[in-house]
Specification:
The complex is a heterodimer. By secondary structure, chain A is α+β, with helices and mostly antiparallel strands. Chain A has one domain. In chain A, 46% of the residues lie in helices and 18% in strands. Chain A is built from 2 helices and 2 strands, in the order ααββ. Chain A has a two-stranded antiparallel ribbon with strand order 1-2. In chain A, a hairpin with a 2-residue loop joins strand 1 and strand 2. By secondary structure, chain B is of the alpha/beta class. Helices cover 40% and strands 16% of the residues of chain B. In chain B, strands 3-4-2-5-1-6-7-8 form an 8-stranded mixed β-sheet, sandwiched between helices. Chain B starts with a strand and ends with a helix. The chains are: A alpha+beta, B alpha/beta. Chains A and B meet through helix 1 of A and helix 7 of B.
Amino acid sequence: MFGLFGRKRSKDQLKDRLKLVLSYDRAGLTPGKMEELKSELLAVIHKHFPADENDYDVKLEQQGDRMVFVANLPVSQGT
Amino acid sequence: MNAKAIVVTSGKGGVGKTTTTANVGAALARLGEKVAVIDTDIGLRNLDVVMGLEGRVVFDLIDVFEGRCKLKQALIKDKRVDTLYLLAASQTKDKGALSEERMQETVDLLLNEEGFDRVIIDSPAGIESGFKTAACAAQGALVVVNPEVSSVRDADRIIGLLESSGVHEVKLIINRLRPEMVKRGDMLEVDDVLEILGVKLIGIVPEDEQVLVSTNIGSPTSLEESSATSAGTAFRNIAKRLQGEDIPYPVLEPSGGFFAALRRLFGGS
């Protein structure tokens, strides 16, 4: 992942950026729309579970031929 | 590839569609196939100059579509390879003159009446009507991509459109690969592009100055003898793979730089 001088190789950055932008392109979504969806989703979840918003991971992911909306929402244990 | 009618496309302009059409068409003809290459970039025709046939265009594709000449009269026979023919785009009309129905008819006539083995259709850049007309009669597609951000993104879009418009055999040509940049980690490598786009590879064409030299003189580089790692050989290999031959990909090594200069100095290639 890192070249001789610890610099992240530019092609790795490009690969990450392309994967992300293509996942939005293929789903016909914009990153802005995704953010909106994410905050609405979190608002609903919050009604039912107490949890730290920073733990939430919501993204689009390519799984084989399908584009999948993946939400990873850890529920806080409560003490 | 089973497809007899093949569209060469990319979405983005300037990635090498016309060069690929000329070179793969010429290489297939040299292998004995009767090949027609069709330029569908109406108003911006260039396949004629890339092939060095610009002085012989009398009738064009739109003349055929609109009945001003017979299909046979518009087919320009190449003098270097006698089974290679060009059908030029119109330079004066606009894209509105294109018709999917006429395109389909023309390709059918070439394959079924005129005895052509293969029709290679050079698509205009973009995803609008010009591309759609170019793709409508094709069963196969060669998607040309450069290993850089906008070309890969546009290729992804084109692949989606091809699949939804019934072009089933879609193969990828990675064009203008620069081995020294790949080695530095500053250019996507072949496997990266394949992973991102998820289509099968049919060719890797290295950046090669000879391509420009050949287009300067209007003679496809695939018709010249050249080294195993040249663009000309890469295009010839694509033609052979289209015919179903299993041709391995030569290892492309960085050619520039100090060590290459040293090798040349001591009589290496």
